[in-house]
Lactate dehydrogenase-like 2-hydroxyacid dehydrogenase
Amino acid sequence: MGLPVVLMPGPMNQSVAAGLAGKCELIRLWEESDPDAVLAARKDEIVAIATGGTRIDRAFLERLPAVRIVASFGVGYDQIDATTAAELGVVVTNTPGVLDDEVADTALGLLLMTVRELSRAERYLRAGQWQERPYPLTKATLHGRRMGILGLGRIGQAIADRVAPFGVSVAYHNRRRKDVAFRYYPTLVEMAHDVDILMIVIPGGDETRHLVDAEVLAALGPDGILINVARGSVVDEAALVDALRDGTILSAGLDVFENEPEVHPGLLELPNAVLLPHVGSASIPTRDAMGGLVVENLTNWFDYGLPVTPVAESADLVRRLSS
Ligand code: 8YV
């Protein structure tokens, strides 16, 4: 029997192809001059997909009836219709755990940059303004702040662990209460009202789209700081621009945007927004670890017919496969 055929629709971290070398035949679709012809010709042979940001929906999966696993790079997988995949008998996997610390570190860096205006202060120095006068005192300090985490999961917990030594208290809002010591808020508005840092770590997708809207921003208030390291879609970006412009909230630190890599032009003009180009997990060691987990999911599938880290939507399917 030949090697299993794996489709890679778009470029991925090189660790994925390196880890799969010799274990499968890899079709790098973006390098093909006629991708549609390749998909049509190989549709009965392609048994797996390794993917980063490509949208994988019903139409895509129906073109590839032999596919049984989609191994996605990243913890968020909102670009993949995992519910439809399960209906079609296709397991979806992601890469949880290996990026928690990196993303939590980035979140904390972004918070410090935002609250103490650190990137703005550096621009001030580089522009030679320090020689004229010292950088103005920042309105805000981190000390004594209360953080509300929207979406307390593994990354949220890693952020909570990091802010405790800074003297920042933690509360959270999830759909369901968890067995943790932090205060739980059943509604986001109520939590936003009581905290002055709103930390977004909730998954993207239709269910969480624009959860942070004008009402939540108003509740966060004029001393409020919004940090988003999750997905841009969770925030109504137009409402955020208005809130930052008119002082409804104090400032925002954003690693993610609604229409990446495009950034709302209003945000680019605002001095009270710190903007990063989605670098939450973007270190070589962490991205290699994520790539390694993509490979592990695929090789475990080929060798034993089971994934290592299936997403929640695939749980029933995996249960049936393993019984
Ligand atoms: C990456 C991420 O940017 O894991 C995620 O959900 O957002 C990031 O770690 C993404 O996976 C890049 O493809």
